[in-house]
Design goal:
The two termini are about 20 Å apart. The radius of gyration is 20 Å and the shape is elongated. The protein has helices at about 10, 15-25, 40-50, 55-60, 115-135, 135-140, 140-165, 170-185, 195-205, 210-220, 225-240, 245-255, 265-280, 285-310; strands spanning about 30, 65, 80, 90-95, 100-105, 110. The chain contains 14 helices and six strands. Strand 3 (about 80) and strand 4 form a beta hairpin. The chain is α+β, with helices and mostly antiparallel strands and about 300 residues long.
Amino acid sequence: MVKNFANTYLYTKYDEYEKQIFTFVRNATEIDKDTSEFDDISYDVKRRQISSKLLKILKSNKVILVSGDKPLPKAFKVTCMKDIKGNGKDRKIFIDVSDIIYKDSSGKYVCRDVDILISYLVSAMSNMVYYIDEKRFINNSSLTKDGAACFSKLFTHVVDYVSKISAVPGSKGKCMYLTAMYYLANVLGKDINMEGTYTIAKRLSGISDREVDMINMQLNRDAFLNIKTFSEALSDILKISRLTLDVIVEKWMYLYGTGTVFALEHFPSFATMITDAYIGAYINNQKTIEKIIGREMVDFAKNIVEIGGSSV
């Protein structure tokens, strides 16, 4: 099932998010991509793009570049939402370029950092595919496995940072299994009762069938409902009382960047977190991310770009 920001736990707990996005889009200026003044940026994207389809994404009438006096938070630089200035029904991808695109003295548009724009366009591409036909991502076996590996390693690193579970025999494997299951069940929306879901999580964690059975017996039915119920289940099973949702969110943002917070619940945000690190524009803490997930980061990002490029 497709998940919007509004379907995530963290978004609903902060009323200002909705207000910030609505106010920004309502007051922002749309950049005309079809004028000669924009040609230099189009050329830069064409010259440096990592996919032949990025220029098509840039020029798409479904992708709107907007600039405003008060830029959006990093987590919302690329957002899929209804076009409130249009008919209010069509979904479009809005990219906040306030910090990177401006007009020079000659009236031409200039991009301060093309790599950041490339990152935004890749994010727009993955958002577009997800909201048009999410199965192209969700049902791709390689992307599913690599994504689960990336997520479980990143999340387990946060838990290890908080409580040094690497020093406790068996704890890291349990954490890897549980975080992989959460990713598959909540972020991807997979059926947790499917054999394939357990198999992926078990293989990633390296734990035994007996350990899997013991963990599953301890899980309550709402464990993967949202990030709040999952953090409570994780804390209970690993016996780490200080592992609260607030601590997880705080350390996640500290380690990986403030703009990555919705990667905990929202697939397009998670995909953006990984592709941002892969492209290397230093939008997030890419060195830390790369150090933790390495090869899987590259494989996941390349797959996202390949699927996206074949879909637009």
